[in-house]
Amino acid sequence: QLQLVESGGGLVQPVGSLRLSCAASGFTLYDYAIGWFLQAPGKEREGFACIGSGYDATYYPDSVKGRFAISRDNANNTGYLQMNSLKPEETAVYYCGGRRWGDADTILTATKKEVYDAWGQGTKGTVSS
To answer: For residue 25, which of 93, 81, 79 has the smallest C-alpha distance?
Structure first.
């Protein structure tokens, strides 16, 4: 069984920080791209941070560039997302996904929610004063 478990959400004030973790089991995370997606109430999941497998490649939309940083620790089979200078509109449930890397994949492949092989249960981040 392929499993991902997110942790690290909680309540933070505006311009504060959260560090999210995504622990994998049942597969080797080294072989997978990692995507972080947010889902606000009544809306679909949207990708906002991705990292590829086998080479240094990341994707961030302009809205989070310079504030968010995605990384991985392959030895511990865990992905991370550091989020700084958080805004109230970034209150959401945050999900991590794992996408097995294929020969035709690019970093843009990992931005599409429909391509993921496994998802975590989500962790809630609330940005409020």
So the answer is: 79
- The 10 Å CB-count burial string (b at 16+, else e) for 41-65 is eeeebebbbbbbbeeeeebbeeebe
Of 69, 74, 63, 53, the residue nearest 117 (C-alpha) = 53
Q: Which amino acid is at 110?
A: A
pLDDT digits (tens, 9 = 90+) for 23-63: 999 988 889 999 999 998 888 999 999 998 876 699 999 99
pLDDT of residue 21: 98
On whether the CB atoms of residues 30 and 41 are closer than 8 A, the answer is: no
Residue 8: closest CA among 97, 71, 81:
81
DSSP 21-84: EEEEESS-GGGEEEEEEEE-TTS--EEEEEE-SSS--EE--TTTTTTEEEEEEGGGTEEEEEE-
pLDDT digits (tens, 9 = 90+) for 100-115: 988 888 989 999 999 9
Report d(CA 113, CA 36) in Å as an integer: 10
